[in-house]
Design goal:
Two copies of one chain form a homodimer. Chain A is an alpha+beta fold and 444 residues long. Chain A contains twelve helices and 16 strands. Chain A has two domains: 88 residues, Beta Barrel (OB fold (Dihydrolipoamide Acetyltransferase, E2P)), CATH 2.40.50.140; 306 residues, BirA Bifunctional Protein, domain 2 (2-Layer Sandwich), CATH 3.30.930. Helices cover 31% and strands 25% of the residues of chain A. At the A-B interface, strand 1, helix 3, helix 4, strand 6 and strand 7 of A face strand 1, helix 3, helix 4, strand 6 and strand 7 of B.
Chain lengths: 444, 444
């Protein structure tokens, strides 16, 4: 057998073997399964594109294939031949086999079943092996497609991608639930969000910025919807009139994100039995809007009692169900949150200053986005900080562009793991993180 | 005057005013400069696209423009009219002015000169204001274009974008120079690189992954080439034959990155007097290769003495100069580094096991990339770990995919700030970071 291919070489991916019918091909990947029928021995090979069946008929080839361990990495050469009984209608008739890296025996779970039969903790403990299952790997192809759509939509609208520091010197936005560390003898913190930086960058003249990056919450609760490190899709945009502009932008961006998933990952959607909201091109306000007060009325009508401040997880679920049944929508904006439930930089509602121009977006009954218009008036920001017991001096660098010309602006942050999990119907947000971090999990 | 535009509204960007000649336009941005000639008053407005001149002739308009503070955020309406003396050949004849957010007086530096006259520390202390200068903002448009080209090239080659945790539970890759923190009562560290995770993901069947994200080095030295938090462009690819495959991939990817800068940011290149290496489409090995031993010989020929182990900054600079003068190349691969200077996962050179299949890429005499082929043999990895006094048990999750079939693989990491700085000829890597973190700087 020849040496293995170079990057530019002649390896044929499993999914492209049918197109190579009649040619000698070399496939490379992991041994998914060996089936010995005596006269012939089958091996199913898995690579990043899918699986392909190879069959060994002559004695030497049969012996070579019979000896393969599941999950060994191998190269197989042979003729791509029509075979109606093969899963793809074409199989590889084995002429040569080379083991590139042999696998031990004793996998923690089987990988050739339609689903991996193991609990979430086992799957996360053996993450690199679990992800070899196409159904689990597919989650991260969907996740990547969402990020791609997010970027694509924003680059088209003239946004600049930025990277802001995750090591910060002050406990911004309130101060609770921060991871702290020693930074050359001084205290530093892991950023809870790029919020203040992205506002500064709007004020720095970029006007439109976005960031895809990690954020940190030292929250000690351990639920199916929380992670201590997660990926936030953040954007901020200047020269807006109202929170409504940000909501419309969210609709356009989400439409593109779903479109990317639809075009890139139809197989994953099918494997998970998932369907996507149809937002068209995102124009025409396809997502229903409800004020928080209206939402509370709805909930009272459904449950018979007035909900507490804001929305707890159960209230979000009920509203999600109501939106689907009554409005035919899996997405729902909840607007006009009271100022006391929102950060100091939230823009008050012009009609009622106790309320803010902010919104949450619920997707299938889970908050996936928070956003709104922000204050751009320096004096009011300083007042708000002081009223919340925060020291404006600690926010001097943040406040500086507000002193020297800050446009009206707003933005939003999407929790990528939550969005991915809702989209595929995953029960736990951890399933949408490659290596999740929670109170108990810091490995692998 | 009407209310300010919505996102979908009718604002005209400064750069597009000439195309709107003869129409009534509304421009919005920052007041860059007001010049009062008595009979007319000029105002130069700056937005994310550039600057535009507006002129007030009638009494009310003159009074309104005269009252504008530099850096106030304003909307100006009027006719876009031909005026040969205007910088763009078209100016806005002011009919209405609205101050959206007034600026205080007392900017820390002038923003209307060709360059901002202030030291780096002042520029970084007042980052959001300094970035209003198009020359400084341009650095980050180049940086974003580099990232865009990196992603675009890799998505086309079937890579998956991933996000790996920056909070890690063990001191990987050696353990020195790590930031540590308390994670719910346990020690955790900030990741120095996504190296082990991206290898795990190659072994998880993705085969080809990339990540754009922050990395952390608790190095206490304070130089023009080091940051304690920086952005790493990381990739890892399976089923390669040799480090050469990774170097060729680097050439293709770099070619695309430079092409993106060329097409997106010609104005920034001009402002900085920067030119780009011409790599064509990256094929045909456009970047010269030199082994470290050959590089040492060159240096000895230049300086008269044999250099110490590896390459110090001065040696890199000399090699960079030599490559430009002797080879006509601003890029230079240095290959075949000794194993003792490389991490435990470096693949030995088949011809000399004291050397490794690794490379650095120098760009104008500065290392911007490190990469190579990695070991995929489990036994040799365990031996290497033990030989370096590292506990293989601490690497169990990393090693697991190697026990169960890991393809031959390799990858690289590009320091985004270094690459950007070299490209534009910036003297200090901090200039290519929006909010740099160094030993002394944790704000803003």
């Amino acid at each position: 057998m020849r040496e293995i291919e170079t990057l530019a070489g002649e390896r044929v991916l499993a999914a492209r073997v049918p197109a190579a019918e009649g040619r000698r091909v070399r496939v490379m990947g992991w041994v998914q399964r060996v089936r010995d029928l005596g006269a012939v021995v089958f091996v199913v090979l898995r690579d990043r594109s899918g699986t392909v069946q190879a069959v060994a008929a002559d004695e030497t080839a049969r012996a070579a294939v019979r000896a393969l361990h599941p999950e060994s990495v191998v190269a197989v050469e042979g003729l791509a031949a029509r075979e109606p009984r093969a899963p793809m209608g074409v199989e590889v008739r084995v002429e040569a086999v080379q083991v590139l890296n042999p696998a031990e025996t004793g996998l923690p779970f089987e990988l050739h079943q339609p689903e991996v039969r193991a609990g979430l903790d086992v799957l996360l403990d053996h993450r690199a092996l679990a992800l070899r299952h196409p159904r689990l790997a597919g989650i991260f192809r969907v996740r990547a497609a969402l990020v791609e759509g997010f970027r694509e939509a924003l680059l088209e609208e003239d946004f600049v991608e930025v990277h802001t520091p995750k090591l910060v010197g002050s406990a911004t936005e309130g101060g609770a639930e921060l991871f702290s560390l020693d930074y050359f003898g001084r205290p530093a913190y892991l950023a809870q969000s790029p919020q203040l930086y992205k506002e500064m960058l709007v004020g720095a003249g970029f006007e439109r910025v976005f960031e895809v990056g990690p954020v940190y919450r030292a929250e000690s609760h351990d639920t199916a919807r929380h992670l201590n490190e997660y990926t936030s899709l953040d954007l901020e945009v200047g020269f807006i009139e109202a929170a409504e502009d940000v909501m419309r932008l969210q609709e356009r961006v989400l439409a593109r994100m779903f479109a990317r998933v639809r075009s890139r990952c139809p197989d994953v959607l099918e494997a998970w039995g998932a369907s996507l909201p149809d937002l068209g091109d995102g124009s025409g306000r396809p997502v229903p809007r409800l004020t928080l007060a209206e939402a509370a009325e709805r909930l009272e009508a459904i449950t018979g009692h007035r909900p507490a401040d804001g929305l707890d997880p159960e209230a979000e679920r009920r509203l999600g169900r109501w939106a689907r049944e009554a409005l035919g929508s899996e997405l729902l904006f909840i607007t006009h949150w009271p100022a006391r439930l929102r950060p100091f930089y939230a823009m008050p509602d012009p009609a009622d200053p106790a309320l803010t121009q902010t919104f949450d977006l619920l997707y299938r009954g889970l908050e996936v986005t928070t956003g709104g218009q922000r204050l751009h008036d320096h004096r009011r920001l300083v007042e708000n900080l002081a009223a919340r017991g925060l020291d404006p001096a600690a926010f001097a660098a943040y406040l500086e562009p507000f002193r020297f010309g800050m446009p009206p602006h707003g933005g939003l942050a999407i929790g990528l793991e939550r969005l991915t999990a809702r989209l595929l119907g995953l029960g736990n947000v951890r399933e949408a993180s490659l290596f999740p971090r929670d109170r108990n999990r810091l490995f692998p």
